[in-house]
């Protein structure tokens, strides 16, 4: 009986051992077959160390593919302290090459960490310095690839592009706004080491970095170059407190150019103050717009059918009394009897006071709201301002009067160009934007596109057409004459706004501005330029901003390949203006006939004979009277 009990126990133990053995075999099989990859990876993670390889930041391109923000390949110093055999010698040699104290380098060499990035003295090393370190061939000392942001055109478009920090992170402008798109994924060289950090004799693994996405802007580089050149000229000539310019496509809200002064070089952003770095004036600056704002008042009065520009008239005596305030016209004695079109051409303040009174405060301020004043446009740049509009319950007769001609309210340049775009494009208020496409970095194929965004409709097409003609008339016959370009239909409006400080208007301190449209009959671009407190010049925008705007408009015509137009309003010439004439066709005529037909020009002949066989300029071109026309003669 006792023996049977022992046998039963032995059998039970044996069964248990067999079951355990089967379980162990099954477990080993499972681990070897099913869990092998997972456990192997976990083991490798315990042994592996990464030498980081930084990804390239995405490029920023203009609308035509010009690279505005690029990358340079540099190297940086990385240490693996546990692999450094002679720490004192390593520290001394590296300190000497990098030009830092040995104590500073000792802190890096002796740091208790698996990998030490030498920052900042070991970052973005020159090729010369990197070669010296590489030649030492020191254990535990590595040089890894690192990308450095590079702006090939220096300060051009600086406030729009922004800049990046030493770790390639966007800190302002588009670099900050779209940092998650531009930043890639870092790669690495994986090596294997034991628990003490000693490198194991295993093959290294290269993990390729993934570059950030490229971004294509709506900016036209050729237009941007024009803005930068002319603003530099403004600074040289007038030493202003600030200056800015912006160009927009009124048909979709695309920004074609944007710049301001002061500006900075994002390659060396450390050399500038935060005020210089952070203020993108076309979207941030807020000030009284002055007479450019009269475009909005005029459009509102026409839309409400309160005035007919050609038929209705206004008598300007030189000033108008509104409660206890006397509002003066810039012309002593006034402009006398004039149509409301002439009120706009002459920028006559009393005439706009009348328009404001006809509209009333509720109606006028409803149009300010309709056109987006007092609110952000939503442009895809950080730091946009809102401007300041009177609360309706604070608007009395004087505030109504001054608002009508652009005084007392505060607006941003981007609000102005967006609103004027709506006035001229048929009444559609579009949200301005500056990023057009997101591109895959390897192939540059479009991944995502930003489309135009209609905010709301404002005025009718009929009113818009009237305003296009009216602003062309301002340039041809009014205060914008200096922007006139023969053969092209240019519209525009000047502005001269007195600056305010501590609630008081400053003496001889103005912001002078001009809004230009090309071509006025079918606008393709709207330019806004403003100069704050220009020195050594007449206090009239027609003598400061308007000639500068004309040069930019000529560049816009070239950049957008805008053809000449016919049927425009003929310029009202003054005594010192060049008068343009069309060159007649004299090919085939004799010398006497050709000379008579070209009486407005100087004529130069070459060749022999009596018949004209070639002429320059060609027939149909318009050139100033007195210009030279060259004729080739033959028998």
Q: Which descriptors apply to this entry?
A:
635 residues; alpha+beta; Penicillin-binding protein 2a (Domain 2); Beta-lactamase; 4 domains; seven-stranded mixed beta sheet; five-stranded antiparallel beta sheet; elongated
Give a description of the structure.
The structure is a single chain. This protein is an alpha+beta fold. It has four domains: 2-34; 50-217, Penicillin-binding protein 2a (Domain 2); 221-266 and 280-559, Beta-lactamase (3-Layer(aba) Sandwich), CATH 3.40.710; 580-634, Trypsin Inhibitor V, Chain A (2-Layer Sandwich). Helices cover 34% and strands 24% of the residues. It is built from 20 helices and 26 strands. Strands 2, 3, 4, 5, 8, 16 and 17 form a seven-stranded mixed β-sheet that branches. A five-stranded antiparallel β-sheet has the order 10-9-21-20-19, with helices on both faces. It has a three-stranded antiparallel β-sheet with strand order 1-6-7. The longest helix has 32 residues, at 2-33. It is elongated, with a radius of gyration of 36 Å. The N and C termini lie far apart (148 Å). The model has no long low-confidence stretch (mean pLDDT 87).
- Unreliable parts: none
N-end to C-end Cα span:
148 Å
Radius of gyration: 36 Å
**Any idea what the CATH superfamily of the largest domain is called?**
DD-peptidase/beta-lactamase superfamily
How many domain regions?
Answer: 4
Number of strands: 26
Name of the CATH class of the largest domain: Alpha Beta
Question: Shape, please?
Answer: elongated
The overall pLDDT, averaged over residues, is 87
Structural classification = alpha+beta
Q: DSSP helix count?
A: 20
The largest pleated sheet is described as: 7 strands, mixed
